[in-house]
Structures are given as C-alpha cells and as structure tokens.
Amino acid sequence: MVYLVLTRNGYEELIKQFQCVPSPLWVNKDILSETELSSLRNSGMVLTDFIYRITPSDTQEVSEAAYTVKEHHPNESVWVEYVPAL
Fold it and tell me: Which pairing describes strands 78-80 and 47-49: parallel, antiparallel, or unpaired?
C-alpha cells in the first residue's frame, strides 16, 4: 500500500498508528522539512514530496494527487488522508 499524507497531523497520526513511517509515502508540499525529507530518504524510505501544495479540503486537488500517486504505483492500493472541509 502507498500512503498519501496531506497534513502534518496526518503524518504524525500515521506514525502513531504504525509505530514507524510507512513506505512508500507521498507527502504534501511543506509538511516535512528538508532535513526530515533527507533523513527519511537516507534511511532507505521510498518517499516522494509534491512540488506544489495540495489543499487538503479540496476534493478535486486530492483526487488529482491520488491519481498521480496511482500512476507511479499502478499495482498498489493508495491510502489517502481525508481532511473534511470546515
């Protein structure tokens, strides 16, 4: 399974749930620092960070991001963080 995380809270909840950072992981722009990204990659994680910001409550943007993930991982399920609009 591939994980698409849209918020810092979602990232922290995912770690809490799995007791580790699951891989492969795709993250929204700017939810992890460059140091965190480098550290995770250096540990051998399969990690992709978007170069543009995805609005977590915008279902169209999230759907397009999930489609991008699926294009890169065609034979895997994609877990997507759900962030309801307020």
Answer: unpaired
